[in-house]
């Protein structure tokens, strides 16, 4: 399951980041690391981007980036 699959209002825990290189580093710099809890707050009307809460702050992620974050339901 990826972060892209989590429904609005759902919570999950990060298991693994699949992408490598620069994008992985950028995601980790935003605070999304293994074991972090994430709540999906809302999605844009056309579905991209999604708004999530990570470590107490709101973050907008593109669906393409969210598809590279493997999660498990919390």
Task: Describe the 3D structure.
By secondary structure, the chain is α+β, with helices and mostly antiparallel strands. It has a single domain, classed as SH3 type barrels. Helix content is 18%, strand content 39%. It has two helices and five strands. A five-stranded antiparallel β-sheet has the order 4-3-2-1-5. It is globular, with a radius of gyration of 11 Å. The model has no long low-confidence stretch (mean pLDDT 91).
Descriptive tags:
74 residues; alpha+beta; SH3 type barrels; five-stranded antiparallel β-sheet; globular
Assign a percent range to the helix content. 10-25%
What name is given to the CATH topology? Answer: SH3 type barrels
What is the CA-based Rg, rounded? 11 Å
Biggest pleated sheet: 5 strands, antiparallel
- For this entry, what is the oligomeric state of its chains? single chain
Strand order of the largest sheet: 4-3-2-1-5
H and E order:
EHEEEHE
CATH class: Mainly Beta
Query: Tell me, what's the shape?
Result: globular
**What's the average pLDDT?**
91
Number of helical stretches of at least 4 residues: 2
Distance linking N and C termini: 12 Å
CATH superfamily: Ferrous iron transport protein A (FeoA)
Relative strand content: 35-45%
> What's the structural domain tally?
1
Structural class category: alpha+beta
In CATH terms, what is the architecture?
Roll
Count the beta strands. 5
Low-confidence stretches: none
């Amino acid at each position: 399951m990826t972060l892209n699959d989590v429904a609005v209002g759902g919570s999950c825990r990060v298991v693994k980041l699949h992408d490598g290189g620069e994008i992985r580093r950028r995601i980790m710099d935003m605070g999304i690391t293994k074991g972090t809890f994430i709540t999906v707050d809302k999605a844009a009307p056309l579905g991209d981007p999604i708004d999530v809460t990570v470590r107490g702050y709101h973050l907008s992620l593109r669906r393409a980036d969210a598809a590279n974050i493997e999660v498990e339901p919390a």
